[in-house]
């Protein structure tokens, strides 16, 4: 089993380049299945979620390959299979997008119930309701969702809950449907806009992405082309928080500062310095930071995917902070691991009370999901002594070259097989 070994205490200093957005890329890669042509997608992060989806596309009869660093070529002309069974899709939540893409292209999709990180219940009822509104019928049997439609027709769809996945899935299914689809109470995350821009650049007619009403006029067909994925808002936010957590000074490059407004606002409220440039953000912190309360919300609110990293930072501030998780019903599992390091956090349902002022101490801990894994790495950087972070498969799903990027900023972090020795300067 592999682990990160981290010697805490180093301030992160220098510059770091953010990769392409994982959550955009996984949707765009699947969206390329709608295009009976070749799509070249640039700025794709080389993370395990990307490789899982490339594998799925190849198994469905298409061809997905990296032709150079960050540039993925997808040829979906040969796709002739509409079934994605459990062993193909169980590793990744974004496999649910196969439903919308295969339904949109072939009028039929058979996809196993999707997997991904476990934050409690992760239903797909809104995705299915959306497909039904477009004229599809579905059954769930033997773990497979079978969705089919003679013809998909535009419809008005109101989402009961703001859902990134359901919004994207309906956009995919509606892109080639007959007539206009209107999604109300749509999600507004940056990757919704990115997927719409990708589809539009391939010939779709989607307006309003980034607002809560998206209008999709179905088109006859889509054509190939080249598209560049936006920078990863969550990776950027992770480095912003890591900079503040270590009293560091980091210039985070290749970002869209507007996507990070909610994080910037919290860091400023805590007393960190944040400077915004056209496509970079500098975060600098020194001395004591102040407590803040954080509530996760759909975009443009504070992202749930930065909640674990932010809560970890709050363990070192002055005073008591309250963190409320409004998106997922069970996203505090990692808190047990932080407690092992000396954090003083109490969880009651969707609320965590963080008593600041704790000096974390290094300890073995295990990632419980992707972003929790990143949070534990930040905890390791803040801690006295050596932290070992296990279960790296989660972190590998979404952070490209994480330890290399951290090391380039001065972090003492290495990746080791369990049992393999690791010597840092100053540690026997
Ligand atoms: C996406 C992100 C994930 C992030 C989440 C919220 C990807 C690949 N993953 O996940 O990292 O944490 O957005 O920002 O982009 N819901 C329903 N019924 C549904 C679908 C969702 O009730 O059919 C609920 C969920 O239980 C949850 C909320 O809606 O409480 C938001 O989920 P959703 O936005 O759909 O998350 P994902 O798209 O799965």
Descriptors for this entry?
428 residues, UDP-n-acetylglucosamine1-carboxyvinyl-transferase, Chain, 31% helix, 4-stranded mixed β-sheet, 25% strand, 14 helices, alpha/beta, globular, 2 domains, binds uridine-diphosphate-N-acetylglucosamine
What do you see in this structure?
The chain has 428 residues and is α/β, with parallel strands linked by helices. It folds into two domains: 2-18 and 231-417, Alpha-beta prism (UDP-n-acetylglucosamine1-carboxyvinyl-transferase, Chain); 22-228, Enolpyruvate transferase domain (UDP-n-acetylglucosamine1-carboxyvinyl-transferase, Chain, Alpha-beta prism), CATH 3.65.10.10. Helices cover 31% and strands 25% of the residues. The longest helix is centred in the middle third of the chain and has 13 residues, at 233-245. The structure holds uridine-diphosphate-N-acetylglucosamine (UD1). Residues 23, 26, 93-94, 121-127, 161, 163-166, 187, 304-305, 327-328 line the site of uridine-diphosphate-N-acetylglucosamine.
Give the neighbour order of strands across the main sheet.
Answer: 22-23-1-24
* Structural class label: alpha/beta
Largest sheet: 4 strands, mixed
Shape estimate: globular
Task: Please work out how many helical segments DSSP would assign.
Answer: 14
According to DSSP, the number of beta strands is 24
Short description:
The chain contains 14 helices and 24 strands.
Topology:
Elements (H helix, E strand, L loop, with lengths): L1 E6 L5 E5 L4 H10 L6 E5 L5 H12 L3 E6 L2 E5 L7 E2 L1 H4 L7 H10 L1 E5 L12 H9 L3 E5 L2 E5 L7 E3 L5 H11 L5 E5 L5 H12 L3 E3 L5 E5 L7 E4 L4 H13 L3 E5 L7 H10 L2 E4 L3 E5 L9 E2 L11 H8 L5 E5 L10 H6 L3 E5 L2 E5 L8 E3 L3 H13 L3 E5 L1 H7 L3 H7 L3 E6 L11
Parallel strand pairs: 2-15, 3-14, 6-7, 10-11, 18-19, 22-23
Antiparallel strand pairs: 1-23, 1-24, 3-5, 4-5, 7-9, 8-9, 11-13, 12-13, 15-17, 16-17, 19-21, 20-21
The structure holds uridine-diphosphate-N-acetylglucosamine.
